[in-house]
Specification:
Oligomer: single chain
Order of helices and strands: HHHHHEEHEEHEEEEH
Number of domains: 1
Largest sheet: 6 strands, antiparallel
Number of strands: 8
Shape: globular
C-alpha cells in the first residue's frame, strides 16, 4: 500500500511532524512503506538510533538496511522487503581514454534507469523517496535533478503484493 502525493503529505500533518526537524529519512521511509509518521518516527528512533530533531546518519541507514535486506522490515503492522541497490544501480559507467570509470548517478538519471518501483534515496545530507518516477520531498527541498545519489534502497510492501495477487 503506497500513499499518493496528497495522502503522503497529509500523513505528516501531526503535532510531532510539525515540531520535528532533520527528519527527512523518517519521512522518506514512511512514504515508501506506507506507514504513519508517528509509527515510523519511533521505529527509526529505536532501530537506527535517531535522536529527536537530529538527522539519521548515512552509515546507520546503510548498516541497518543491509540487515533488513536479510530479515525484512516491519514498521508497525506493515511488512516490507528491502533491497540495497549496488554500485551498478547508483553509478553510471563511462570509458575515459580507454579506462572504465564510475560516477554517481544524478537523481534524474536514477529515475530514468528506475522508472518503476519505490526507493528511499540518500543524497548529500538528505533523504527522499522516489516512487514510480515521482519524487517525494518536503519543506524547502525542491526537486534538484542534479543531486548525486549516494545510496538507494528499494522498498516493496508485502501487503500490496498480497492485494495484487488476489486479482
Amino acid at each position: 500500500m503506497y500513499l499518493n502525493v496528497n495522502e503522503a503529505y497529509a500523513a505528516f500533518d501531526s503535532k510531532l511532524a510539525r515540531e520535528e526537524k532533520n527528519d527527512c529519512f523518517v519521512r522518506s521511509l514512511a512514504v515508501a512503506s506506507g506507514s504513519q509518521y508517528e509509527t515510523t518516527h519511533q521505529f527509526v528512533k529505536d532501530e537506527f538510533g535517531r535522536e529527536d530533531k537530529k538527522g539519521t546518519e548515512n552509515f546507520a541507514i546503510y548498516a541497518n538496511m543491509l540487515r533488513y535486506e536479510d530479515q525484512g522490515l516491519q514498521i508497525g503492522n506493515i511488512k516490507c522487503d528491502v533491497k540495497v541497490l549496488g554500485k551498478s544501480r547508483i553509478k553510471n559507467q563511462y570509458k575515459l581514454y580507454g579506462e572504465v570509470i564510475y560516477r554517481q548517478k544524478t537523481i534524474a538519471s536514477f529515475i530514468k534507469d528506475n522508472p518503476k518501483g519505490c526507493f528511499v534515496v540518500s543524497v548529500a545530507g538528505h533523504a527522499l523517496t522516489i516512487k514510480d518516477g515521482e519524487v517525494f520531498d518536503w519543506n524547502a527541498n525542491k526537486f534538484k535533478p542534479t543531486r548525486k545519489v549516494q545510496s538507494a534502497y528499494e522498498i516493496k510492501s508485502k501487503e500490496s503484493e498480497k492485494q495484487l495477487s488476489l486479482f
